[in-house]
Amino acid sequence: MAAAKTWKPEWKQDVVYLHVFPRIMSKGVPNFSPFAVKLETWLRISKIAFEVVDHMGMSTKGQSPFIMFNQKEYPDSNFIIEYLTDYFSVTMENCLSDVEKAISRAFLKMIEEDMTWSIFWYRYVDHFVDEYLEYLKPSDDPEKAKAFAEHLGSSVKNRAVSHGIGRHSNEEIYKIGSDDIRAISKYLGDKTFMMGDNPTLIDCCLFGFIIQITDVPINFPMRDVIEKECPNILQFVDRIKTKYWSDWNQQCI
After folding, report:
1. pLDDT digits (tens, 9 = 90+) for 209-242
2. Which residue in 87, 61, 57 sits closest to 74, CA to CA?
3. Fold of 16-88
4. Is 34 exposed, middle or buried (0-12, 13-18, 19+ CB in 10 A)?
5. Mapping DSSP to helix (H, G, I), strand (E, B) and coil, where does residue 110 land?
6. Taking every annotated instance into account, which residue ranges of this chain make up the domain Thioredoxin-like fold (predicted)?
7. Model pTM greater than 0.90?
8. Contact, 38 vs 209, CB < 8 A?
9. What are phi and psi for residue 8, nearest 5 degrees?
């Protein structure tokens, strides 16, 4: 990959500079991007040296988060994790059998490419202005914030329709997300982590997405499902926070 502009001039060798939307933009969670929280959680568990860089820009692929690492840009959370796993010889997934790796990948894809739309639809399309804008602060200027909300809502809606899920009713979209959560809860059961006693990538992914529902106090239909039917997911969230986000309150501005 060609060298890209580094946004942090005082860079250090083998330190990951994690570029994410500014923490100050969101309330209740460290970042409103579930992919950013997923990646930061993975870095914390892997004990890789990193620094968070608040940054409104996108990668060359038009994505956030991305990293600058040894003066090169690496976009996309999954490709970043693959690269850093090889570079640092991370052994997080070594405890899994081939079958368990297949199951883990299936859950990851379900969360990132299916369940995510129920979250994004509620907060960006269905209830952006009347609920979510209170917890996402794109600007101190009310007019700019409203314009941002309208633009983002329209963009997410168009992408959801192209994906296919946006062609369903609101109730059907939330049912899809709720059924995904029920499936996750059934598989998690009474295990410490999704795949057993040790955290793996799927736990980082699940945590990054689930906290967008559990820790932002808006009226997600999926929130009711978690609170009433899936107490093990709430316990899972607390477990990750306690063990890997001891500074949670400081990081949630």
Report:
1. 999 999 998 999 999 999 999 999 999 999 999 9
2. 61
3. Glutaredoxin (3.40.30)
4. buried
5. helix
6. 34-126
7. yes
8. yes
9. -130, 100
